[in-house]
Specification:
The chain is mainly alpha-helical and 62 residues long. Helix content is 66%, strand content 0%. The radius of gyration is 26 Å and the shape is elongated.
């Protein structure tokens, strides 16, 4: 604190990536896919279960 007032300092980050943009984009995409994999697997399981339920209901109504 200076003179009783809190001083806010703005942080400025700069990153240097020596890789070509395509390499960086591929890495980011890989990380995003990996991070969302559990959600994708859950959605696929739920869709498969809905498909099975619809088939069972169709067979019982026939």
């Amino acid at each position: 604190m200076i003179g009783g007032a809190a001083v806010k300092k703005k942080l400025n980050f700069r990153f240097h990536d020596p890789n070509p943009a395509g390499v960086a984009a591929e890495y980011i995409l890989k990380e995003l896919i990996e991070a969302n994999l559990p959600k994708v697997e859950r959605v696929i399981r739920e869709a498969k279960m809905r498909e099975i339920v619809l088939k069972v209901e169709k067979n019982h109504s026939a």
